[in-house]
Amino acid sequence: MLETGIKAPSFSLPDQNGVIHTLEEYKGKKVILYFYPRDNTPGCSKQACSFGELYPQFQERGAIVLGVSKDSIASHKKFEEKYGLPFTLLSDPELTCIQAYDVWKEKKNYGKVSMGVVRTTYLINEEGMIVKAFGKVKAAENPGQMLLELQNL
Asked: Which residues contact residue 152 at a Cβ distance below 8 angstroms, ignoring those fewer than 6 apart?
């Protein structure tokens, strides 16, 4: 996980509609950049839906939400449509952004070791600096936690 107080790594990734997004285009806004393992899994769906429910409150505070996983653009589109998600999902199958943000880690599941995305959320300020970093977040609680962090800035 990256430390707070450093410049957030730049990225250029396609969203669920194939449109390329870069961190630089959000200069002047707060960015909640959250990394999750996989579309349409119980925890990831819970987290995405909670971010969706709270999205108007994030917007009121001048923040945008970007979800990142290694899923394909098509998978993200289905995920967005299934849950009516109002925010951007970025596709990173090459793991460039995922590795730049240091969230690709060894994971153990039922004794089996594999590599995967560790659920992590970064709060990036208007100047592109990481001001908060949360690793191994609880899917259902993370969106509310991030809203509180925005209120305390």
From this structure: none
H helix intervals, 1-151 = 42-60, 73-83, 96-100, 142-151
Catalytic option among 44, 98, 124, 133: 44
Taking each helix axis from N to C end, the angle separating 73-83 and 42-60, rounded to the nearest 10 degrees, works out to 70
- 90-125: pLDDT as tens digits: 999 999 999 999 999 988 878 888 899 999 999 999
DSSP H or E stretch at residue 69: strand 63-69
Q: Judge whether 44 counts as a catalytic residue.
A: yes
Closest by CA position to 86, among listed 62, 71, 67: 67
DSSP letter at 141 equals: T
Q: What is the pTM of this model?
A: 0.95
